[in-house]
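User: Hi! I'm working on a homework problem where we have to compare a predicted structure to a textbook description. Could you give me the structure for the chain below?
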Amino acid sequence: MNIVFKIHQGLQKVAKQLGVEKPGFRVVSNNGPDGQQEVDHLHYHLMGGRQLKWEI
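Assistant: Happy to help. Predicted structure tokens:
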């Protein structure tokens, strides 16, 4: 099984524990200074619990 698939399975489990799996959630990974990455390592943000919008 590939590592990205395992990561997403874990994210789905966390979303379920937080109660945001069914209404929906977003997973974000920031990359580089223009992506607002402040810590130089791979990490994910799981966001949910309300209607999310893209603000540009």
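For your comparison, note the following. Residues 3-48 form a domain with the HIT family, subunit A fold (CATH 3.30.428.10). The two ends are 36 Å apart (CA to CA). Good luck with the assignment!
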